[in-house]
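cron nightly-structures :: item 1 of 1
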Amino acid sequence: MKKQSKLIFTNARLMAVQAVYAHALTGGDYDALMSAFLMGKTGARVLKDLPAGGEQEIALTPGDADLFTRLVKYVAESEGDLEQSIRSGLSAHIDYKRLDLTFQCILKVALAEFFVNPDLDAPIIINEYVDMTHCFYENSEVKIANGLLNRFAKVMRGDNHA
């Protein structure tokens, strides 16, 4: 049961990243996107690489609707501030505009979670989004995500153990 309950939160986070990504690509209304995701019309699917080559679409276990909604709404309301926080947290030689769009969306949702889940331990948030980043990218993005989220946790929460 514990693994199943963790999975619905992990999937809610991934769905939130998918919704923020869909908004970035289409400019679609966040409320309409959230509705489509919550009704299962879009999102909540991932592609799995097959050993013999090719990919297979896999449906995810439904994500926690409340967490998904809170994350997407926070990004919708605070997107400019989140982008500025990301820019400020990146090292001087990393240009936010050059980051892959998926990576930008992961970082936005990750930072949003610090605000929508203030009582959740920072290492849990960091691990969730670093693991997600690792599913999409190799070492450099994973290192950037880990460093940025740890710095943000320290500033946001004064957490020296993040």
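cron nightly-structures :: done
Residues 2-26 form the longest helix (25 residues).
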